[in-house]
Amino acid sequence: MPPPLPFLRRFNTLSASSAPKLRITFASYDGSESTPCPFTAGQTMLDVALEKDVDIEGACGGQCACSTCHVIMKEEDYGKFPEPTEDELDMLDLAMHRQDTSRLGCQLKLTEEHDGIEVKLPAETISQLDGPHVPTGKE
Amino acid sequence: MWRSVTRARPVLPLCSLPSAPPVPPPRPFISRVRRFSQLQHFQEKHQPPSEPQPRQTVLPWEDEVREGSFRWDDYNVCIVGAGPAGFYTAKYLLKKEEMMQIDIIEKLPMPGGLVRYGVAPDHPEVKNVMNDFEEVMNNPRVRYFGNIELQKEVGINQLREWYHVVVLAYGCQKDKMLGLDGEDLEGVLSARRFVFWYNGHPEAFSVQPDLTSSEEAVVIGHGNVALDCARVLTRKISELEKTDISDLAESALRQSAIRWVHVVGRRGVVQAAWTNKELRELTQLDGVLPIVDPAEYEANMNDASKKEMEGNRGKQRMMPIIETMMKNWDRREITDKKIIQLRFLTSPVRITPHAAEPWRADGIELRRNRLEGEPGRQRAVPLDGPDAEPEYVQSNLIIKSVGFKHDAVPGLILSEEDGSVCHHEGRVELAYQSPFQIIGGLYVAGWLKRGPKGVIASNIPDAMETANTILKDLWARERIYISFRSKGREGVVEKVVEDLRIPRRIVTDKDYFQTKNEEIRRGIERGKTASKFLRIKDMIQFLDKSYRDVLDKEQKEISVRSLLIHGTTPLLTRNQRAPEGALLLTSGSELDEIINTERPYNPSSIDGKDGVLLPVQYREFAIRQRSEYIGLGYMLGMCVFIYYCMYRIHVSGDPGRPDEKWI
Ligand SMILES: Cc1cc2nc3c(=O)[nH]c(=O)nc-3n(C[C@H](O)[C@H](O)[C@H](O)COP(=O)(O)OP(=O)(O)OC[C@H]3O[C@@H](n4cnc5c(N)ncnc54)[C@H](O)[C@@H]3O)c2cc1C
Ligand code: FES
């Protein structure tokens, strides 16, 4: 077979770079485990996590009614998403181990801009079997 | 089967080799284990009864003696209560351990607990967690048995004998009392009963709140449940009728005259237990005007309350919502909307009976309070002086939403402060007049463990903790915690059914899905998301009927059909086992087999089949009926033959001599 023509090769590389692999990483609260997950623009963070079986519940199916899809962002990534709505803030009030940069995964639509960011899962969703005992929300 | 291989008859050795240690049998994989243990169970059952052994009381440290009888092939876990706590515990146990076999026992036929019967009908998105729970029920390692109540149908000690681990997750089944005069009058309802009523809980079928006699209703309590009650009372019926609200409640609310709901709490805004989401929802309702009296608000925002608010983001975000409600205050007289008034620093004093009909409530006396104490510990103290004049609200519907209580299994010790069961990381402690600190094989989860507070999501970390403790104990063979008397879970349900004085239909996971689909179908007919069965009786009738329909199609035998219609026939479904000697019938041709072979029942034939279970006496009945038919047919044949003979004789004329026509 003759080698591909130079312009075709050019074309190939072009098409490959037009659909770059986007990825986001979910890390455990202490950073001991992390799961990189590929995503396509338009998916919510919860969908991406559930596809890869990350330890996140999403009990209400992404309806902003349960706060079990709680994730914690890095300071610098927090601004990359639109401001949370009042509804989301109301649900976040109920999330355990809430921090200033907490968000609900089901309310975060991912775009190309979010490629490579890393989010943390709050303490209680981590397997406590191997880790230290984490106090449950008895308050 | 591996047993027969390893126990092959010994062959004479050709030369004397040192005898090799016996090869341990290969570890069977899970499905084989189940099949085998079923068979073993069957064989055990059909062995001639041996001499009754004196029953041993076994102490936890004597387990070694019984090590041999304990099978570690699978872990049998029983979860009592099919609410969020039960399902989440099951979910994590299944996720972490492959050998887990779980039975879930529930008092009501339908699972879900407060997700089905607590969460308000206009919050369908919250009920999406049921999808998660259904996934657990669909797991082949889980069996669901509804309509079995702990303490009635089955005792806790029985369960501990049958299972390695018993998890109590039956929530809170009682109400806290206010201790007021007139609390037991007609018209005073606990929020639990009221919520159960509009959610179609079978226990609340007879509740009939009076919504027509007065324009005002009073809800006592400042939590989300109180707001749920107030919202359902005022929300437009055109919005409620589309939900899965109970049909009875829907028609009662359609007639409702209630225009003004007082939501009364003894302390202030900052101390209220509701969440912002529920509070904000009130301001967004169509046709409802939520109001707050600015004077009351001012009175409760003392310095201590402001301090309490400082570090609390949620409380700070609540203030704009309350301010919106204060702005509505002036419109209260002119609006044609229904009103929800949130009242602070107000306590109920007594509920007064009606003058002419003293068995029912006519109104409630309220008194004003002030706050006293340091931030975080403020108490409500009655006002004195001229302000102390009590206020009277005329109302025939008074709902107390002041919290729930446990209905403890006798022997469990409840902690003083919040009334939950004493436990350490989920292990039940100090119970049953036992000399041991921790009671083996018994665990708690959910509201029973934490006390009646928190949202559904709060059950997740809690269930994880219990699941982890269970697994740790199981894996470590930590005997003190695990009930070593476990005999395996096979036949548990039959034992329960056998012991019943009043027969009960056990509802399985399959029945649940069938009922749920029927409820949705009925709902579609009425333009709702679902129309729930309001009585257990109706639900069971529906289930029995649909099973009969299916079977009728298959069965040609008239006698069988008459049996099915006239007899009470326990229905058997997948994975259930029949009581000893019963007949399992899955099709008409099987009846033949049963009658002809006198085969009692063979557990392997049940595997994965559904059918009708006929008590033993039906075999005799069926055999008799069949022989009656045979006898009848025989007699009919004889009659025809005799008639024919007579006819021939008549035609031939002379009976005395043979005619050539005969030849
Ligand atoms: C009115 C109301 C509304 C609520 N709304 C919301 C909401 O919108 N969002 C939210 O996040 N949370 C809500 N909650 C809180 C949530 O329902 C609870 O956190 C959760 O249901 C507790 O789960 P549980 O499994 O411990 O108890 P339950 O859900 O009560 O489950 C206990 C189960 O055990 C069964 N049972 C009881 N006794 C026995 C027995 N003797 N034998 C066998 N079984 C038995 C019961 O029938 C029940 O199915 C609400 C609570 C109430 C009361
Ligand atoms: S999945 Fe329930 S709030 Fe996000």
UniProtKB/TrEMBL annotation, chain A:
CDD domains referenced in this protein's UniProt entry, alphabetically: fer2
One Pfam family matching this protein: Fer2
Cellular component per GO, a single term: mitochondrion
UniProt entry keywords in alphabetical sequence: 2Fe-2S, Iron, Iron-sulfur, Metal-binding
Chain ranges of the 2Fe-2S ferredoxin-type domain: 22-125
GO function terms (MF aspect): 2 iron, 2 sulfur cluster binding; electron transfer activity; metal ion binding
Cofactor(s) essential for the protein: [2Fe-2S] cluster
GO biological process: P450-containing electron transport chain
Transmembrane segments: none
Gene3D superfamilies in alphabetical order: 3.10.20.30
Record keyword Iron-sulfur present: yes
Similarity comment text for this entry: Belongs to the adrenodoxin/putidaredoxin family.
Protein name, as recorded: 2Fe-2S ferredoxin-type domain-containing protein
Organism: Vitrella brassicaformis (strain CCMP3155)
From TrEMBL, chain B:
One MF annotation (Gene Ontology) recorded for this entry: oxidoreductase activity
Xref: InterPro entries: FAD/NAD-bd_sf, FAD/NAD-binding_dom, Ferredox_Rdtase
Cross-referenced SUPFAM superfamilies: Nucleotide-binding domain (SSF51971)
Gene3D superfamilies given in the database record: FAD/NAD(P)-binding domain, NAD(P)-binding Rossmann-like Domain
Residue ranges constituting the FAD/NAD(P)-binding domain according to the UniProt record: 75-236
A UniProt-annotated Pfam family: Pyr_redox_2
Keyword list, A-Z: FAD, Flavoprotein, Membrane, NADP, Oxidoreductase, Transmembrane, Transmembrane helix
Cofactors that this protein relies on: FAD
Transmembrane regions listed in the UniProt entry: 629-647
PANTHER family recorded: GLUTAMATE SYNTHASE 1 [NADH], CHLOROPLASTIC-LIKE
Protein name (database record): FAD/NAD(P)-binding domain-containing protein
